[in-house]
């Protein structure tokens, strides 16, 4: 895959050396709510996942990229998921790993790169994101990139004995 490069960051495919980075992210209980994770992941499972991450998006219906700073530090992950070429759509999710790197523009730049990639190279008609009602940073990020809130899934996620709404955001490519 061609490296996707922005002004301050670039996106690259997962590498075996990303094992520790992905392991820490996938086992951070603070972000489990965003990914609907219920249990920890072992290093073994993540290693297997990394070994298969080279597979084509048309085969596995997902593409996960590492967000890197220009000095090659891994900052986070951005995913296309539920890729559906029959309907030219995919879901999109993003995570900047360290709190001190959030709000710095890295997420916005990564999101724009993947949006452009999806519309240009994958011929997508639309992208969508599922965002918890209280994830204000993600709501602002997606709205600033042109995504529109098109629905509310009431009491969608149970988090620590409280049901939370989840918003559905869409970005439709206009030719």
TrEMBL record:
Highest taxon of the lineage: Bacteria
InterPro entries the record matches: Acyl_CoA_acyltransferase, GNAT_dom
Molecular function terms, GO-annotated: acyltransferase activity, transferring groups other than amino-acyl groups
Stored PROSITE patterns: GNAT (PS51186)
Segments passing through the bilayer: none
N-acetyltransferase domain segment(s): 9-169
SUPFAM superfamilies registered for this protein in UniProt: Acyl-CoA N-acyltransferases (Nat) (SSF55729)
Pfam family, one: Acetyltransf_3
Protein name: Acetyltransferase
Lineage of the species this protein comes from: Bacteria, Pseudomonadati, Bacteroidota, Flavobacteriia, Flavobacteriales
């Amino acid at each position: 895959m061609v490296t996707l490069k922005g002004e301050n960051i670039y996106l690259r495919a997962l590498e075996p050396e990303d094992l520790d980075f992905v392991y820490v992210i996938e086992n951070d209980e603070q972000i489990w709510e965003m990914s609907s994770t219920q249990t920890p992941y072992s290093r073994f499972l993540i290693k297997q996942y990394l070994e298969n991450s080279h597979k084509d998006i048309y085969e596995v219906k997902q593409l996960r990229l590492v967000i890197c700073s220009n000095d090659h530090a891994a900052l986070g992950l951005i995913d296309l998921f539920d890729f559906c070429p029959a309907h030219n759509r995919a879901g999109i999710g993003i995570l900047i790993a360290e709190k001190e790197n959030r709000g710095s523009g890295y997420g916005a730049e990564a999101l724009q790169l993947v949006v452009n990639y999806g519309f240009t190279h994958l011929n997508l008609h639309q992208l969508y994101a599922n965002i918890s009602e209280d994830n204000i940073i993600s709501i602002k990020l997606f709205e600033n990139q042109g995504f529109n809130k098109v629905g509310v899934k009431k009491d969608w996620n149970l988090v620590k004995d409280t049901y939370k709404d989840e918003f559905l955001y869409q970005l439709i490519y206009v030719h």
